[in-house]
Amino acid sequence: MSSDERSIQTDVKTNAQHLEQDVDVAKVVHADGTVDYIDARAVGGDFEEMPKGYFYSPQFIGTVANIEMLIGANICNGIAAAGQLSFGIVLGELVPNKYRGPIISLVFFSSMPFAVFGPVIARSFIDNTASRWRWSYFIGDILSAITLVLYFFFYHPPKYNQLHVSGKTQWQQFKEMDFVGIFLFISGCVLFLIGLSWGGVTYPWASAQTLCTLLIGVGTLAAFGIYEGFFCKKQPLMPPRLFRNVGFVAIVFIASVGSMVYYSLTVLWPTIITTVYTTDSIKVGLQSSVVGGGVLLGQLMGGIFLSYVPKVKYQCIIVSCMVIAFITPISTLGPDTHSMVIALGVLACTCVGFIENISYPAVTLVWEPQDIGLASGTLGSIRALAGAIAQCLYVAVLNNKLQDNMPKYVVPAATDAGLPSSSITALFSAITAGDFSTVPGITPEIIEAVTYSLKIAYSQSFKIVFYCTIPFSVILLISSCFVPNMEQFLSTNVAKRLQGMSRKPAAAAAQDVEMQKTERAA
Predict the structure, then answer these.
(1) Residues 14-55: pLDDT tens digits?
(2) 2-177+235-405+455-489 maps to which CATH number?
(3) Which of 180, 365, 465, 513 sits a CA distance of 20 to 30 A from 191?
(4) How far is CA 378 from the centre of its chain?
(5) Is residue 174 classed as helix, strand or coil in its secondary structure?
(6) Is residue 269 within 8 Å of 342, Cβ to Cβ?
(7) Cβ(159)–Cβ(50) under 8 Å?
(8) pLDDT (tens digit per residue) in 348-372
(9) CA-CA distance, 30 to 191, in Å (whole number)?
(10) Contact 457, 405 (CB under 8 A)
């Protein structure tokens, strides 16, 4: 799933146009992304207890006929993707501590064709195939089929009864799941995100629809926290004891804030390129690869640095400062800053990718082996929620500013170029449709003036969006100060082994475990 994620996100807007329906692009992306790790965490703390069928993504999205089907299908896709995106948990249990960073980097590198070139591949499908955007999902079919074969023949974890000798049955475990916590968490997330996406766009911020949805969502999430801390008598969805580990909380924060930057750029970057710099489909695709390419480069560096360069805390602090230094200047974007924006985008995404791949292996190192699935699932759920909030927030800010800036810049430019005032309404309809031929009194000179004024309006709107990233970047920097150094955890201990694999001599394994316990106690 993750390998073709960027190509799918790139043409969501094109899907809507092809299906001849208007849609908030962020809602379709949220439908996929927000359930990924929430669903994975709900299955249980131990990753190997998930059924193999859980990993087979239902890529029937390519057959949808309308936007409602697209949103529903993306929800199903996100549920299946939760298992596939939990590869970090598998590697955290099967790979020696010392090599988890480089191995996770290797997995990220395997997604390079789609992670980097997904946008241009998607746009090539749109321009050159009969099925157009649907090919982005057909590729998902192919990759999921390959995944199914690989899991079936090569992934043989211990069976449930081997992990729970004289323990509870699977049905007993299922009945003891934290269903109340799952309901409160998912309901709170959905309500809060819907309210955030409605504000100022579908309904005014002060409307009953927006305020009630937001407040009920926040209240439900607060109830979830209280229930988990004081009333849950079963295994909590997010045990409070996890959050008493300061190092773990810091790792969760840097991962979450990193995702807030990454997912916002993934959604907004193609719009920046299209509205301010070029409308050429292939050029938009290539320049949208800035996000995936930069993040992948940072992920490769982060995993290697974690294992082979000391003082991870100071690495995170330095890179967090670089995030602020590279993200904030993008707020100066304009029609004449094309090269600068591309360069800053690559550098900022590289730093974000570095932080991301510090958090993936690090969360598996700061807990005992039996808690790896629990900790990773909790981090992933919070990270997914943070990314979804960022998408809603940034899209809402952009749409609100455009409502102010479009009339502010376009109307004077059009009338000064000679457009009659009576044609203003028709002009904005033409801008939405992308066809100026129906506007009374339109001339090539007016079209040129309007086109440039649109670039200014979008540039000014994007500035506010990037101003909104500054507080999150500051939170990232502060959180980095509490990330633990990893040298003490980088032993050769393997948390769990597949069936039939040779084991380390008992004395050496016991020595590794004892060393880890001593270091954690210290």
Answers:
(1) 444 444 444 444 444 444 444 444 444 444 344 444 444 434
(2) 1.20.1250.20
(3) 465
(4) 15
(5) helix
(6) no
(7) no
(8) 999 999 999 999 899 988 888 878 8
(9) 12
(10) yes
